[in-house]
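Its record is set out here:
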Amino acid sequence: MIQIPGNDIFIALATWLRQWMLSIGLDVVFVDIVMALIRALMLAIVALVVFIVITWLERKVVARIQDRIGPNLAGPWGILQPIADAIKAITKEDTTPAGADVHIFNAAPILSAVAAVLVYAVLPFGPNPGGDCAGAPCGPMAGTDMSIGLFYVLAVGAVSLIAVLMAGWSSNNKYALLGAFRAVAELLSYEVPQVLSIAAMVMIAGTMNMTQIVEVQTVPFIFPLFVTALVFFVSGLAEAGRSPFDLVEAESEIVAGYHIEYSGMKFSLFFLGEFVHAFAVCAVITTVFLNGWQGPILPGWVWFFVKSFAVYFIMMWIKFTMPRFRIDQLMAFNWKFLVPVSLLNLLMLAVGDTVLKSVAITRETNPLLWGGILFMANLALLFVAMWALGRSARKSRLDKRPIVARVEDVKPVQSPVVTSN
């Protein structure tokens, strides 16, 4: 496959920096610590740049969908609008409500932002070139190459629950506390189908290492694991608090929810955490279901971001075109539809993959036939699930329909006869 060299530039820079530090007599352990800190700083910069880009991109996309102009005054095409927003947030007054637990109140937005950025530590932006890099084995273009990378993503994603609860409880505001409780109930509930979808994917891939998951995709997992990818995407929408699952901060119902008492830069940190987390969900979907960095001609990291932004565009499309769910609809959709579908999908993949292996049709030997059969099984499961959902919806509407009596069954009302003496 012809490919423009792109990852080699970053590897060469890292190798040169490591060699230079070793040449001036620094200890190997100290060099490893410095390189780890540099990787962490670069990931934080990537997350910040992503936040700046998608805040501008969302405004432009919603403007086109709603037939508006969008930001166009701060810089050409409004590209400096995120900078103007940052200046506004920094200069706004920082307030703390009376009676609030100050330390927890101030720590909650920081924890929310940090939890979102931590997901980027295991995302492989490029392939593993192999070989030796100045005395250390070359790894993939990632912060760290963990053998349990997917488990780490699930664990770190749950940290945002703690930040939400800290913000709502410490604000000393009943609306903030109510919003926090409702947010935690939503986020915990949608963790269940997300974990089940990850279990199905790991069962097929045979690993939780993010880099190895990309490498074993002889066909993109979006085809043989279509229902799994769909459930993970919907659960990711809910976990990131995106519409139509944005009950976490439903302004029209609970006055912005758990962060009602926050202003200025503290509110912006919650805002940053939500956007960075949403893009992290798209990046995980790209890694797990869309072959990650793999693609022709362009460098791997370019393909990674192209695919991730394509998934994020779908997320924006849904956000700006669908109405918000009610809290009872949201919880019922999870426990009565997503969770059963996830369990059936897990069972179907386990049985299907085992049967295909018994007839020598595997991901390695015959990937196209293997992927095609599982894709058809996914379509059958999705058809049955949507039919059951539509039948349940029709039954619910019929149960709530008012009873109208027939005309011949309605007896005329006799008006009282008034007589005079």
Observations:
- The first helix runs from residue 7 to 23.
- Strands lie at 132-133, 136-137.
- The radius of gyration is 26 Å.
